[in-house]
Amino acid sequence: MKYFDEIEKSARERNIPVMEKEGLEFLIQTFEEYQCHRCLEIGSAIGYSAMMMVSNINDFVVETIELDENRYQEALKNIHEQQLENQIEIHHEDALTIPLDDLKYQEFDCLFIDAAKAQYQKFFEKYMPLVKEKGICIVDNLDFHGMIFDIDHIKNRNTKQLVKKIKRFKDWIFNHDEYQVTYYGVGDGICVIKRK
Ligand SMILES: C[S@@+](CC[C@H](N)C(=O)[O-])C[C@H]1O[C@@H](n2cnc3c(N)ncnc32)[C@H](O)[C@@H]1O
After folding, report:
1. Among the four 19, 31, 109, 166, which has the fewest Cβ within 10 Å?
2. Mean pLDDT per segment of 10 residues, for the chain of length 196 residues?
3. 2-195: what fold?
4. Which atom of ligand 1 is nearest to the CA of 112?
5. Domain assignments of the chain as residue spans, ordered by start
6. Interhelix angle for 120-127 vs 157-174, to 10°?
7. Ligand 1 centroid to 176 CA: how many Å?
8. Which of 46, 57, 30, 47 is nearest to 135 (CA)?
């Protein structure tokens, strides 16, 4: 685990956003509870969360997509150093445009959305059809540091736009006829979404 701690620390020092420990523990527990074995992750960064998942869950594989070239290269290096190539399939692509046929797997037990927050709904609509009937989707950062509860007081225009988009996704998914959403106040707000 020391190796993973160092990766996490190094990412934070360089302002590369990686999942909080508390959130990751929740993710791992939830995937175990739902007996998930195959995960599609949107937003790999340097591979930290994918490596944590496959190293802590039995019989688990992750297919993950990262847009940024440098982060993708670093993730590849990290995955190789830990000899996790058999369990992690990583793509250097924009998750909004990559053809679904390019994915190695065509069916997943779980979807973990951890990329551009303004695009949550697009990611969800594109990838949820690949999740099995009884599968789940986990979305992180839904509170956006609490700002979502006080949008009127956000001064920065771009931040305000982003928080509004997150709120729009939250309202949309919580009121969706086909999905049941459970919110957990873990880390920055996590939702577990399943089909009704
Ligand atoms: C929060 S980080 C992912 C952290 C990672 N899951 C972890 O916890 O170790 C979000 C990543 O999504 C990537 N990203 C943003 N938009 C994307 C897109 N359209 N397709 C693929 N990756 C994207 C960003 O470059 C960034 O590295």
Report:
1. 109
2. 89 94 95 98 98 97 98 98 97 98 97 93 97 96 72 84 87 95 88 96
3. Rossmann fold (3.40.50)
4. 6
5. 2-195
6. 40
7. 25
8. 30
